[in-house]
What we know:
The chain has about 375 residues and is α+β, with helices and mostly antiparallel strands. The chain has helices at about 1-25, 95-125, 130-160, 225, and strands spanning about 30-35, 40-55, 55-60, 65-70, 80, 85-90, 175, 180-185, 195, 205-210, 215-220, 235-240, 245-255, 260, 265-275, 285-305, 310, 315-320, 330-335, 335-340, 345-350, 355-360. The protein has a six-stranded antiparallel β-barrel.
Amino acid sequence: MKKFIIIAILVLIFIGTFVFLWGKSQPEVIEYEEVHPSIGTVSKSTIVTGKIEPRNEVNVKPQISGIITEILKEPGHKVAKGDVIAKITVIPDMGQLSSAESRVRLAEINLKQVETDFKRDENLYKQQLISANEYEKSAQQLKQAREEKSAAEDALQVVKEGFSKTNASASSTLIRSTISGVILDIPVKVGNSVINSNSFNDGTTIATIANMNDLIFRGNIDETEVGQIVEGMPMKITIGALQDSQFDAVLEYISPKATESNGANQFEIKAAMRVKDDSKIRSGYSANAEIVLAKVENVVVVPESVLEFEGDSTFVLIPDGTTTDGTKNYTRKSVSTGLSDGVNIEVKSGIDTTATVRGSQIIKEE
């Protein structure tokens, strides 16, 4: 009995091995996916990398030299035109101070002389020894001398303290915003010395301000694609820092001159962005701009992977019956193609949406 069981097991092993080897020796039937052309849209686009920045950044600088005594705003604060950003204490220029003091002294001397002349002319006029016209001229000279003295004193106070008594609201010691916007940077600190702009120096920047509702995208496009874009083309701006938020933009500038970058010629482009007042965009964000270079709609579309190329000709494979071993036959069909987006391609002629074409090979799991 035991011998019979052993023989039976050996026979089963032999039969199983034979069947396995026979199955392996049979030719494998290769199967393919079948694709039906569809009506769709194909667009060719390019991606331009760049950054977001305000159209205009304004540097606020002092009107006089001095020392920062107080800073009232911080970067990120919104300000209106005329808002005070900082205060400074004046450091008088010795040349200007000397000139202003000299002007005051001369104005005082002149005023004393004019007052003396006026008193004499007034007495003569009362005695009717001079005409009314001469008396009025003398009175006018007195007014002018007094006005000159007042102006000289105001100028001296401006040099010494940065403001005058007659116009204290326009004090040069108060650094005011020149536009409405958002403060991007305040590069100075309390105690820093600052100077005004002059012929030899650009002056110290107290703050940089920009209108963050008027933003542009700035980037560079390769010379192989710059010929396909024109001003006014729509763009889609993607900002990764804002969880891939998208914004509409319009191309408004293409540089007429190339710059070399990593051995390739690049052309600078700028696009005006459309943003909401409550957007959280910050100056300097990295961004990508998608520009549609070409687009066709309502055309016959197939995956580009179903095409075969031979020379200048393009073909698809059309099912044409089945062989005795179950393998499908395919016939080559010449087609004319158009625009491709790298995945799908436009078919201009050769097949329509009723056709069936061979696609990729079906990979069977072991």
